[in-house]
Design brief:
By secondary structure, this protein is an alpha/beta fold. The chain has nine helices and 13 strands. Helix 1 links the parallel strand 2 and strand 3. The longest helix has 22 residues. It is globular and about 55 Å long.
Protein backbone atom coordinates (compact mmCIF):
# COMPACT_ATOMS: atom_id res chain seq x y z
CA UNK A 1 0.00 0.00 0.00
CA UNK A 2 1.08 3.58 -0.55
CA UNK A 3 -0.22 7.11 -0.20
CA UNK A 4 -1.96 8.48 -3.26
CA UNK A 5 -0.94 11.97 -2.21
CA UNK A 6 1.15 13.65 0.43
CA UNK A 7 0.52 17.36 0.57
CA UNK A 8 2.40 19.67 2.91
CA UNK A 9 0.79 23.01 3.81
CA UNK A 10 2.57 26.02 2.40
CA UNK A 11 3.78 28.76 4.71
CA UNK A 12 3.62 28.96 8.50
CA UNK A 13 0.60 27.43 10.21
CA UNK A 14 -0.41 27.00 13.84
CA UNK A 15 -0.07 23.40 14.95
CA UNK A 16 -0.99 21.62 11.70
CA UNK A 17 -2.18 18.05 12.16
CA UNK A 18 -1.58 14.95 10.13
CA UNK A 19 -5.00 14.24 8.59
CA UNK A 20 -5.43 10.97 6.71
CA UNK A 21 -8.32 11.06 4.20
CA UNK A 22 -9.67 7.82 2.74
CA UNK A 23 -11.39 8.07 -0.64
CA UNK A 24 -9.25 11.09 -1.45
CA UNK A 25 -10.11 10.88 -5.17
CA UNK A 26 -13.87 11.13 -4.61
CA UNK A 27 -16.07 14.23 -4.57
CA UNK A 28 -15.72 14.90 -0.86
CA UNK A 29 -12.16 13.58 -0.57
CA UNK A 30 -10.86 16.00 -3.19
CA UNK A 31 -12.71 18.89 -1.59
CA UNK A 32 -11.35 18.06 1.86
CA UNK A 33 -7.79 18.04 0.58
CA UNK A 34 -8.33 21.58 -0.68
CA UNK A 35 -10.15 22.78 2.43
CA UNK A 36 -7.71 21.36 4.99
CA UNK A 37 -4.83 23.34 3.54
CA UNK A 38 -3.35 24.25 6.92
CA UNK A 39 -2.78 20.59 7.76
CA UNK A 40 -0.54 17.83 6.44
CA UNK A 41 -2.96 15.85 4.28
CA UNK A 42 -2.38 12.17 3.65
CA UNK A 43 -4.66 10.94 0.87
CA UNK A 44 -5.36 7.26 0.23
CA UNK A 45 -7.61 5.59 -2.34
CA UNK A 46 -7.86 2.63 -4.66
CA UNK A 47 -5.92 0.99 -6.23
CA UNK A 48 -3.04 1.88 -3.91
CA UNK A 49 -4.93 1.41 -0.65
CA UNK A 50 -7.69 -1.17 -0.08
CA UNK A 51 -9.50 -0.52 3.20
CA UNK A 52 -11.01 -4.03 3.14
CA UNK A 53 -7.55 -5.60 3.43
CA UNK A 54 -6.45 -6.07 7.07
CA UNK A 55 -3.02 -4.88 5.95
CA UNK A 56 -4.50 -1.38 5.95
CA UNK A 57 -4.34 -1.41 9.75
CA UNK A 58 -0.52 -1.45 10.13
CA UNK A 59 -0.29 0.80 7.07
CA UNK A 60 -2.33 3.51 8.79
CA UNK A 61 -0.44 2.96 12.03
CA UNK A 62 2.79 3.68 10.14
CA UNK A 63 1.42 6.99 8.85
CA UNK A 64 0.74 8.12 12.45
CA UNK A 65 -2.20 10.40 11.59
CA UNK A 66 -3.66 12.67 14.26
CA UNK A 67 -7.14 12.14 12.81
CA UNK A 68 -8.61 9.93 10.08
CA UNK A 69 -11.46 11.20 7.89
CA UNK A 70 -13.18 8.23 6.28
CA UNK A 71 -15.02 9.18 3.09
CA UNK A 72 -14.34 5.99 1.10
CA UNK A 73 -17.48 3.94 0.49
CA UNK A 74 -19.52 1.94 -1.98
CA UNK A 75 -22.11 4.60 -2.89
CA UNK A 76 -24.03 3.14 -5.84
CA UNK A 77 -27.30 2.83 -3.92
CA UNK A 78 -29.17 0.93 -6.62
CA UNK A 79 -26.20 -1.24 -7.58
CA UNK A 80 -25.80 -2.24 -3.96
CA UNK A 81 -28.95 -4.35 -4.07
CA UNK A 82 -27.27 -6.87 -6.39
CA UNK A 83 -23.92 -6.84 -4.55
CA UNK A 84 -24.62 -7.03 -0.81
CA UNK A 85 -21.45 -8.94 0.07
CA UNK A 86 -19.24 -6.41 -1.71
CA UNK A 87 -21.12 -3.48 -0.22
CA UNK A 88 -20.82 -4.76 3.34
CA UNK A 89 -17.17 -5.66 2.82
CA UNK A 90 -16.41 -2.06 1.86
CA UNK A 91 -18.81 -0.07 4.00
CA UNK A 92 -18.76 -2.18 7.16
CA UNK A 93 -15.59 -4.26 7.12
CA UNK A 94 -13.48 -1.45 5.66
CA UNK A 95 -14.76 0.88 8.36
CA UNK A 96 -14.06 -1.80 10.98
CA UNK A 97 -10.44 -1.96 9.82
CA UNK A 98 -10.04 1.80 10.02
CA UNK A 99 -11.62 1.93 13.47
CA UNK A 100 -9.17 -0.76 14.66
CA UNK A 101 -6.26 1.25 13.30
CA UNK A 102 -7.50 4.37 15.08
CA UNK A 103 -7.99 2.36 18.26
CA UNK A 104 -4.36 1.21 18.16
CA UNK A 105 -2.88 4.67 17.62
CA UNK A 106 -5.38 6.63 19.72
CA UNK A 107 -6.53 8.82 16.83
CA UNK A 108 -10.16 9.88 16.38
CA UNK A 109 -12.04 8.68 13.31
CA UNK A 110 -14.54 10.82 11.41
CA UNK A 111 -16.91 8.52 9.53
CA UNK A 112 -19.13 9.84 6.74
CA UNK A 113 -22.60 8.30 6.96
CA UNK A 114 -25.93 9.05 5.34
CA UNK A 115 -29.50 10.18 5.91
CA UNK A 116 -30.54 6.83 4.46
CA UNK A 117 -29.91 5.11 7.80
CA UNK A 118 -33.40 6.46 8.66
CA UNK A 119 -36.52 4.97 7.09
CA UNK A 120 -38.06 8.35 6.21
CA UNK A 121 -41.58 7.20 7.01
CA UNK A 122 -42.65 10.28 8.96
CA UNK A 123 -43.39 13.65 7.41
CA UNK A 124 -43.88 16.02 10.32
CA UNK A 125 -40.29 16.56 11.47
CA UNK A 126 -36.64 15.99 10.62
CA UNK A 127 -34.53 13.28 12.24
CA UNK A 128 -32.28 14.25 15.13
CA UNK A 129 -28.80 12.89 15.74
CA UNK A 130 -29.77 10.78 18.75
CA UNK A 131 -32.70 8.92 17.17
CA UNK A 132 -32.66 5.19 16.42
CA UNK A 133 -31.87 4.23 12.85
CA UNK A 134 -33.97 1.94 10.66
CA UNK A 135 -32.24 1.44 7.28
CA UNK A 136 -34.28 0.09 4.37
CA UNK A 137 -31.80 -0.71 1.59
CA UNK A 138 -28.61 -2.77 1.35
CA UNK A 139 -26.58 0.42 1.06
CA UNK A 140 -28.29 1.99 4.08
CA UNK A 141 -27.86 -1.14 6.19
CA UNK A 142 -24.16 -1.29 5.32
CA UNK A 143 -23.66 2.33 6.36
CA UNK A 144 -25.57 1.74 9.60
CA UNK A 145 -23.30 -1.26 10.22
CA UNK A 146 -20.30 1.02 9.69
CA UNK A 147 -21.70 3.40 12.29
CA UNK A 148 -22.08 0.50 14.72
CA UNK A 149 -18.48 -0.58 14.16
CA UNK A 150 -17.24 2.94 14.91
CA UNK A 151 -19.34 3.26 18.07
CA UNK A 152 -18.31 -0.20 19.29
CA UNK A 153 -14.56 0.10 18.77
CA UNK A 154 -13.89 3.75 19.55
CA UNK A 155 -14.60 6.29 22.24
CA UNK A 156 -13.25 9.22 20.22
CA UNK A 157 -15.18 9.46 16.98
CA UNK A 158 -17.33 11.72 14.84
CA UNK A 159 -20.16 10.16 12.85
CA UNK A 160 -21.21 12.72 10.25
CA UNK A 161 -24.45 12.03 8.38
CA UNK A 162 -24.95 13.85 5.10
CA UNK A 163 -27.55 13.86 2.32
CA UNK A 164 -27.75 14.53 -1.42
CA UNK A 165 -24.09 15.49 -1.79
CA UNK A 166 -23.02 17.49 -4.83
CA UNK A 167 -19.60 18.93 -5.62
CA UNK A 168 -18.01 21.08 -8.32
CA UNK A 169 -17.37 19.12 -11.50
CA UNK A 170 -19.43 17.08 -13.91
CA UNK A 171 -20.45 13.94 -12.02
CA UNK A 172 -23.23 15.33 -9.82
CA UNK A 173 -27.00 15.72 -9.68
CA UNK A 174 -27.14 19.34 -10.97
CA UNK A 175 -25.09 18.50 -14.08
CA UNK A 176 -27.14 15.37 -14.75
CA UNK A 177 -30.35 17.40 -14.57
CA UNK A 178 -28.99 20.02 -16.96
CA UNK A 179 -27.68 17.42 -19.40
CA UNK A 180 -31.02 15.57 -19.37
CA UNK A 181 -32.92 18.81 -19.88
CA UNK A 182 -30.72 19.81 -22.82
CA UNK A 183 -31.03 16.37 -24.37
CA UNK A 184 -34.75 15.76 -23.93
CA UNK A 185 -36.20 19.25 -23.59
CA UNK A 186 -38.40 18.13 -20.69
CA UNK A 187 -38.03 16.13 -17.50
CA UNK A 188 -40.00 13.91 -15.14
CA UNK A 189 -38.71 14.15 -11.56
CA UNK A 190 -39.86 12.52 -8.34
CA UNK A 191 -41.79 14.95 -6.15
CA UNK A 192 -42.44 12.84 -3.03
CA UNK A 193 -38.83 12.14 -1.99
CA UNK A 194 -37.39 14.85 0.24
CA UNK A 195 -33.90 15.57 1.49
CA UNK A 196 -31.24 18.18 2.27
CA UNK A 197 -28.98 19.08 -0.68
CA UNK A 198 -25.42 19.31 0.65
CA UNK A 199 -22.62 21.16 -1.14
CA UNK A 200 -19.26 19.46 -0.71
CA UNK A 201 -17.20 22.64 -0.08
CA UNK A 202 -19.63 23.72 2.65
CA UNK A 203 -19.53 20.24 4.17
CA UNK A 204 -15.73 20.17 4.06
CA UNK A 205 -15.54 23.55 5.79
CA UNK A 206 -17.89 22.29 8.51
CA UNK A 207 -15.79 19.14 8.95
CA UNK A 208 -12.66 21.28 9.25
CA UNK A 209 -14.35 23.17 12.08
CA UNK A 210 -15.64 20.02 13.73
CA UNK A 211 -12.31 18.21 14.01
CA UNK A 212 -10.89 21.21 15.86
CA UNK A 213 -13.51 20.94 18.62
CA UNK A 214 -12.77 17.49 20.08
CA UNK A 215 -16.51 17.31 20.77
CA UNK A 216 -17.00 13.72 19.71
CA UNK A 217 -20.35 12.21 18.77
CA UNK A 218 -22.96 12.09 15.99
CA UNK A 219 -23.58 15.07 13.73
CA UNK A 220 -25.87 15.98 10.86
CA UNK A 221 -24.03 18.30 8.47
CA UNK A 222 -26.31 19.38 5.62
CA UNK A 223 -27.06 22.70 4.00
CA UNK A 224 -29.92 24.65 5.48
CA UNK A 225 -33.45 23.90 4.31
CA UNK A 226 -34.90 20.93 2.47
CA UNK A 227 -36.73 20.16 -0.76
CA UNK A 228 -38.07 17.41 -2.96
CA UNK A 229 -36.12 16.03 -5.89
CA UNK A 230 -38.58 17.90 -8.11
CA UNK A 231 -38.01 21.21 -6.30
CA UNK A 232 -34.25 20.69 -6.44
CA UNK A 233 -34.41 20.08 -10.20
CA UNK A 234 -36.56 23.17 -10.77
CA UNK A 235 -34.13 25.37 -8.84
CA UNK A 236 -31.17 23.89 -10.70
CA UNK A 237 -32.74 24.73 -14.05
CA UNK A 238 -33.72 28.21 -12.88
CA UNK A 239 -30.20 29.04 -11.73
CA UNK A 240 -28.74 27.44 -14.87
CA UNK A 241 -30.73 29.82 -17.06
CA UNK A 242 -33.26 27.21 -18.20
CA UNK A 243 -36.41 28.21 -16.28
CA UNK A 244 -38.71 27.34 -19.19
CA UNK A 245 -37.82 23.63 -19.32
CA UNK A 246 -40.94 21.63 -18.54
CA UNK A 247 -40.53 19.53 -15.38
CA UNK A 248 -43.35 17.12 -14.56
CA UNK A 249 -43.65 15.99 -10.92
CA UNK A 250 -44.13 12.24 -10.54
CA UNK A 251 -44.53 9.82 -7.63
CA UNK A 252 -41.58 7.67 -6.64
CA UNK A 253 -43.55 4.61 -7.72
CA UNK A 254 -43.34 5.89 -11.31
CA UNK A 255 -39.54 5.90 -11.20
CA UNK A 256 -38.51 2.27 -10.87
CA UNK A 257 -35.39 1.67 -8.77
CA UNK A 258 -33.65 -1.39 -7.41
CA UNK A 259 -33.32 0.15 -3.96
CA UNK A 260 -35.87 1.56 -1.54
CA UNK A 261 -34.88 5.16 -0.74
CA UNK A 262 -36.33 6.83 2.36
CA UNK A 263 -38.93 9.34 1.21
CA UNK A 264 -38.68 11.88 4.00
CA UNK A 265 -35.28 11.38 5.68
CA UNK A 266 -34.62 15.02 6.49
CA UNK A 267 -31.71 15.68 8.86
CA UNK A 268 -31.79 18.25 11.65
CA UNK A 269 -28.45 19.87 12.44
CA UNK A 270 -28.74 20.13 16.21
CA UNK A 271 -25.42 19.01 17.68
CA UNK A 272 -23.12 20.91 15.31
CA UNK A 273 -25.29 24.03 15.51
CA UNK A 274 -24.82 23.97 19.29
CA UNK A 275 -21.08 24.33 18.59
CA UNK A 276 -21.69 27.19 16.16
CA UNK A 277 -21.26 25.05 13.04
CA UNK A 278 -23.97 25.61 10.44
CA UNK A 279 -24.19 25.48 6.65
CA UNK A 280 -25.86 28.15 4.50
CA UNK A 281 -29.21 27.52 2.75
CA UNK A 282 -28.95 25.00 -0.06
CA UNK A 283 -30.15 27.54 -2.65
CA UNK A 284 -27.16 29.78 -1.83
CA UNK A 285 -24.85 26.78 -1.99
CA UNK A 286 -26.26 25.89 -5.41
CA UNK A 287 -25.53 29.43 -6.61
CA UNK A 288 -21.93 29.01 -5.43
CA UNK A 289 -21.77 25.71 -7.32
CA UNK A 290 -22.67 27.47 -10.58
CA UNK A 291 -20.13 30.21 -9.91
CA UNK A 292 -17.30 27.69 -9.57
CA UNK A 293 -18.32 24.92 -12.01
Amino acid sequence: MKLTSLLIPEGPTAHPRRVLITGCLGQLGRTLQQTLARHVRLGVDLPDCDITDPAVIPFIEAQAPDVVIHTAAYTNVDGAEANPDLVFRINMWGTHNLALACQRIGAPLLYISTNEVFDGTRTNTAYYEWEAVNPLSVYARSKAAGEAAVRTLLQRFYIVRIAWLFAPGNNNFPRKIIEAADKHGALRVVSDEFGNPTYAPDLAAAIAQLIETNHFGIYHLVNGGSCSRYEFAREILRQAGRPDVAVTPIAHTEWVRSSTPPLHALLANTNAAALGITLRPWQEALAAFFQTS
